[in-house]
Design a protein that fits this description.
single chain; about 250 residues; alpha/beta; Rossmann fold; 6 helices; binds S-adenosylmethionine
């Protein structure tokens, strides 16, 4: 699947998930956003009041709303029909968020503009990730900050299904209390509901940032509070599902 086809697949997801799904999503995203991602990403961004921030691949826009609620000047960029829910929320409860329906790979018209750039679980969804990352860095001012999360590639097992000839994500931790990694080095497309995500090695992400002269300032592997393991084993108490990377644009 190329970048365009994957965006189409995300528009299909918008239909599949539907308004009912997003009802629970409104203020904080899903369980993983709420417990593992949101606060860590906000901490990475630091003081955001009055700052221009781009929330790339904003989906239905819950994090754009969090940022706007904290006084940031927010642009939510989303190429798929997921953006329709975001625009609906903005009509009902106006927070002054600007929404742009666009592929991040084509976002080349606001250079040196943003103080910060956020991408929550987005770069792994973009086949042309290098083009998207370059566009995002170019849109940052000098000293601008990029904070992004991805599925932790070291600890997200993917399995090859011989009968379908496809890779899928292995999610059965509860049954085993451990994960089994079959293959890490191979960069593959992993089939999800309608879309695919791209499994890449961690060094692919980090080296690409370094090659674009970004300074890596912090890496967070969010851990779930042990409270959540009272009833059954929970992977996130022991093995991170996500990795969050904070990097700064420091031009010499
Ligand atoms: C896993 S969802 C995350 C959505 C949102 N950031 C969140 O955490 O709720 C990935 C998002 O990336 C978007 N996406 C896919 N390809 C993209 C591209 N080329 N440019 C920008 N966003 C893209 C998808 O449409 C989808 O909304």
């Amino acid at each position: 699947m190329n970048t365009k086809e994957n965006i189409k697949a995300w528009s299909e997801n918008a239909k599949t998930f539907g308004a009912e799904f997003f009802k629970n999503y409104k203020n904080e995203g899903d369980f993983w956003h709420k417990e593992l991602l949101n606060q860590n990403i906000l901490d990475g961004l630091g003081d955001i009041k009055g700052k221009k921030i781009l929330d790339a691949g904003c989906g239905e826009g819950y994090f754009s709303r969090i940022l706007a609620g904290k006084g940031s000047i927010v642009t939510g960029l989303e190429p798929s029909d997921m953006i329709n829910s975001a625009i609906e929320y903005e009509k009902i409860n106006e927070l002054g968020i600007e929404y742009i329906k666009e592929d991040l790979c084509n976002f080349d018209h606001r250079k040196n503009y943003y103080d910060a750039f956020v991408a929550i679980n987005v770069f792994m969804d973009i086949p042309d990730f290098e083009i998207a990352l370059k566009a995002c860095i170019e849109s940052l001012k000098n000293n601008g900050i990029l904070v992004f999360s991805i599925l932790h590639p070291c600890f997200t097992p993917v399995r090859f299904n011989k009968s379908t000839n496809e890779y899928t994500k292995e999610t059965d931790y509860d049954g085993k209390g451990l994960i089994e990694i079959e293959e890490y080095f191979k960069e593959v497309h992993v089939i999800q509901t309608n879309d695919v995500y791209n499994h890449r090695t961690l060094s692919t992400y980090l080296n690409k940032l370094i090659s674009f002269s970004m300074t890596i300032e912090k890496i967070i592997e969010p851990q779930l509070d042990l409270e959540f393991e009272k009833e059954k084993p929970n992977k996130d108490c022991h093995i991170p599902t996500f990795i969050i990377i904070k990097a700064k644009k420091l031009l010499k």
